[in-house]
């Protein structure tokens, strides 16, 4: 049994013995880090992820890093993002997701199907040309747009440290957000529309204040408690 199979088999066996308890523990621990785009729910990610590091190597901006063993053998080697220090660029080709062959990072099936259907309806021309287009763009059809990315984290503006809220003009984060109608300016002050935000952290990366005026906290599915604001980064893992 190779290393990838060992991790998947071992964790899957643990889950079979006490699914509810293990799932709750996984959710609680996940308050301390942020997973890459299109990550499965925490327990599914831990089961599927082989700790191969392919998604980490594929990230062109070096935002993804492996969680260390001291965070627990169950999460060691799994991918997390250092959004506190670097923003996720929501790359058009989603290299981290396409590099994952283990279904730990995976595009939603319904989004893929909807995009395929739309492209087929919009396709015109000769049958031969249509076939070539379909084959040539097969991979592109499977790649959602940036705004289709499920929320990875929550970004909020801290008015106590954000310069425009205290008087001086700034605008350093203007134009940094890749999602339309998300980072908006009202009376020359930035505001983040939460229902649109995916938590990429590019606005925080652009922020020039110290400490940063844009705060990032993880989104933990099925957890009613407050997230751990002491996020694990490459510096404090």
Automatic annotation (TrEMBL):
<feature type="compositionally biased region" description="Low complexity">
    <location>
        <begin position="126"/>
        <end position="137"/>
    </location>
</feature>
<keyword id="KW-0411">Iron-sulfur</keyword>
<dbReference type="Pfam" id="PF12838">
    <property type="entry name" value="Fer4_7"/>
</dbReference>
<feature type="domain" description="4Fe-4S ferredoxin-type">
    <location>
        <begin position="188"/>
        <end position="219"/>
    </location>
</feature>
<feature type="domain" description="4Fe-4S ferredoxin-type">
    <location>
        <begin position="39"/>
        <end position="69"/>
    </location>
</feature>
<keyword id="KW-0408">Iron</keyword>
<dbReference type="GO" id="GO:0051536">
    <property type="term" value="F:iron-sulfur cluster binding"/>
</dbReference>
<dbReference type="GO" id="GO:0046872">
    <property type="term" value="F:metal ion binding"/>
</dbReference>
<feature type="region of interest" description="Disordered">
    <location>
        <begin position="116"/>
        <end position="150"/>
    </location>
</feature>
<dbReference type="InterPro" id="IPR017896">
    <property type="entry name" value="4Fe4S_Fe-S-bd"/>
</dbReference>
<protein>
    <recommendedName>
        <fullName>4Fe-4S ferredoxin-type domain-containing protein</fullName>
    </recommendedName>
</protein>
<keyword id="KW-0479">Metal-binding</keyword>
<dbReference type="InterPro" id="IPR017900">
    <property type="entry name" value="4Fe4S_Fe_S_CS"/>
</dbReference>
């Amino acid at each position: 049994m190779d290393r990838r199979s060992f991790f998947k088999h071992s964790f899957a066996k643990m889950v079979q013995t006490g699914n509810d308890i293990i799932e709750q523990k996984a959710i609680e621990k996940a308050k301390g880090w942020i997973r890459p785009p299109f990550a499965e729910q925490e327990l599914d990610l831990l089961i599927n992820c082989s700790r191969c590091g392919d998604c980490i190597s594929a990230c062109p901006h070096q935002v993804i890093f492996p969680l260390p063993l001291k965070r627990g053998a169950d999460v060691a080697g799994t991918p997390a993002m250092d959004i506190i220090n670097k923003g996720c660029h929501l790359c058009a080709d989603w290299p981290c997701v396409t590099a994952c062959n283990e279904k730990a990072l995976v595009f939603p099936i319904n989004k893929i199907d909807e995009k395929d259907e739309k492209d087929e309806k919009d396709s015109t021309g000769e049958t031969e040309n249509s076939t070539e287009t379909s084959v040539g763009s097969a991979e592109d059809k499977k790649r959602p747009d940036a705004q289709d990315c499920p929320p990875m984290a929550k970004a909020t503006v801290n008015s106590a440290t954000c310069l425009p809220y205290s008087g001086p003009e700034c605008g350093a984060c203007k134009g940094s957000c890749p999602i339309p109608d998300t980072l908006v300016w009202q009376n020359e002050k930035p505001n983040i529309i939460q229902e649109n935000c995916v938590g990429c952290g590019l606005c925080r990366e652009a922020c020039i204040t110290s400490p940063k005026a844009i705060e990032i906290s993880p989104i933990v599915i099925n957890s009613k408690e407050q997230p751990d604001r002491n996020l694990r980064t490459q510096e404090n893992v």
